[in-house]
Specification:
105 residues; alpha+beta; 4-stranded antiparallel sheet; 3 helices; 4 strands; 33% strand; globular
Length: 105
């Protein structure tokens, strides 16, 4: 497995739309390009942090190389990002994530 950690500073007022767009992009990546999905977080500074899982670097690259991706969505995401912060590309050594237990009622 290959994991990418993205970090972005989002333009004020664009946060909710960016989160919806991120989810839409992830659904396409999962259904058509072999992505293992992603999680989107907000850090203590208000910046967005996303963790995306892929079978391989090649699968991720194939997704980003496509030219037929929704141009409106792509432009909306580009406009929403105020700054791309340093991220990370990680190769899996061991995956011990588990489903969280249900929240007690």
């Amino acid at each position: 497995m290959f994991v990418v950690v993205y970090r972005m500073r989002i333009r004020p007022g664009h946060e909710a739309q960016y989160a919806r767009d991120w989810a839409d992009v992830t659904r396409v990546a999962v259904s058509q390009f072999g992505s293992g999905g992603s999680s989107l977080f907000r850090d203590e500074n208000g910046d967005f942090v996303a963790i995306a899982r892929w079978r391989s670097r090649e699968d991720r690259q194939a997704f980003f190389d496509r030219s037929d991706f929704d141009p409106v969505l792509r432009e909306r995401q580009r406009e929403a990002v105020l700054e791309h912060l340093p991220g990370m590309e990680l190769d899996l050594i061991d995956d011990l994530w588990a489903d969280l237990p249900p929240t007690p009622v």
